Amino acid sequence: MRILNASGCLDALAAPEVARQLDGFVTKTVTPLPREGSAPPRIAETAHGMLNAIGLANPGRERFLADHLPRLRELGIPLWVSVGGFCAADYAETCSLLSGIEAIELNLSCPNVDEAADSAAEIVSACRRATELPLYAKLSAAHPDVAEVARAAAAAGADGLSLINTLRGTALGRQLHPVLARGSGGLSGPALKPVALHTVSVCHEATGLPIVGMGGIETGRDALEFAACGARDVALGTVLFADPGAPARVRAELPAACAEAGVATSDDARALAKSPETERKVPA
Amino acid sequence: MIGPKQTLRVTGTERVGPYTLLRLERGELEPGVPGQFFMLEAPGRLLPRPFSLCLAPPGELAFLVDPIGPGTEALCRLRAGNEIDVLGPLGQGYRLDVDRPLLVGGGIGIAPLPYLAEQLGGSPPVVLGFRNADYAEAAALLPGAEIVVDPVLVTELIEPGFDVFACGPEPMLHAVAALCPAAQLAWEAPMACGYGACYGCVVEIDGVLKRLCLEGPVLDAARVRARVEAVA
Q: Is residue A85 situated within a structural domain?
């Protein structure tokens, strides 16, 4: 099991010693043009979670490729580039310009920008034609039938899935106004974990694709639960904010978590958890 | 170098007006430069909270906490012997190489000034503004300071010719910046991480949104443009 960061939850250039604990660094989403991002306030703590509305702040494709990517390569960590855009052609063009990286994650589900008009399958399909690099489709659990979206992404040529992105939410301040300047933001943290586990489980059953599972992972036990639902790898997000040592800690906690659950390794745990349908028993 | 975070034991707490001075064993952490900050675990909460160092007694780090929400209230309830995780020092502090320092604080903005005064040495002049006499009790942290309370503004005590170090609410900092374009100002913003990971703490710096945790929290006055306050 590889331990990555969730896109947008770490700046490897600002904190290389945190990034070096990871088995791969996932960049903040790169869009064709630079984006300054949303006005502050951008974050708010909620019950067992937090909201963020960063708004895909990033230097844009040109500066990312010329300036950021070379400096990221110097860190010597496998790199995953998160690609975003507003139509299939945006995504595909960025993909065509990337090489020498571990994988591309297609951000098909940022809650803080208006959704791309094209469907996930159209975007994956366009990117598939543009690159031979592994393509991971990052999907939202907010879709009423995420397994169907996952199947469509697989049919369009996705090599893997990243699950899940944040879920849109709102928090109100003392005078009942939204805390975030944008009004709403993406919910992350432990509050998300049950939703993420379920989504990983149904998408694993639907596609059998490799899955990077994420959403509220704080401990080795949490990571193992994602494996049990079908994830091959995991990503850490919000936990990095409170604990920059989380990647090394979670990795160190895994063996004991496996032993306690009665499995030899996290790979042995994969998809051990059966969906409720297969285990339903009729009461006597 | 970020982290690792350390688990520090609370040595005691003191009431300072409506605020609480939280004293921690220093552990392996350095106190850093005045104006730098630490992320303190808020017991029972998901995210740590940023605090500038208030005092650095031998073997200790002390932080001034204003109980304004569930995280800061939990910190104020800590008692000697409790433990919390701490990360720091972080960010950019004050430059101390000035000729005629004047320390200007507003409300909880007094927090970094006692350690700053100590590091500057020579008992620099201090002017403080508070909303009322209850809050003004915090001035006990800086004996000899000149104090005003609302409706008098602390900026009325700033005389020309000083190298101003300020910390306080945004309107105060903008007023100080207008009076003293060379002032060093300590800003505040909600932060989830304190080390550049969350992108949550952006402020308009040099005309664009930048992360305060990396660029600041102490910034030269000229780098932050006065925000036009919305009037409803």
A: yes
User: Nearest-5° angle of CA B67, CA B71, CA B73?
Assistant: 35
Q: Which of A45, A192, A238 would you mutate first to test chain B, the one with the most B CBs within 10 A?
A: A45
Containing structural domain, residue A194: 3-38+54-168+187-279
Q: Is residue A273 in some structural domain?
A: yes
Domains, chain B, ordered by start: 6-90 (2.40.30.10), 101-223 (3.40.50.80)
* Cβ-based contacts of B87 with chain A (< 8 Å): 244
Please count the structural domains in chain A: 1
What's this model's pTM, rounded to 2 decimal places? Answer: 0.94
Residues 6+ apart with CB under 8 A from A197: A213, A215, A225, A226, A229, A273
Residue A278 has a pLDDT of: 46
Pick A244's closest partner by Cβ from B4, B202, B209.
B4
> What pLDDT does residue A111 have?
63
Examine residue A182 and state whether it is found in any structural domain, yes or no: no
Q: What is the DSSP string of A152-196?
A: HHHHTT-SEEEE---EEE--B-TTSSBSSTTS-EEEESGGGHHHH
pLDDT in tens, B75-90: 999 999 999 999 999 9
Q: Is the ipTM of this complex over 0.90?
A: yes
Write out pLDDT tens, residues A43-88: 999 999 999 999 999 999 999 999 999 999 999 999 999 999 989 9
Binary contact (B198, A241; C-beta < 8 A): yes
Active site residue A95: no
- CATH value at residue A121: 3.20.20.70
Catalytic residue among A110, A127, A203, A258: A110
Task: List, in sequence order, every beta strand (DSSP E) within A27-78.
Answer: 43-46, 49-52
pLDDT at position A274: 64
Antiparallel, parallel or unpaired: β B163-167 and A167-169 = unpaired
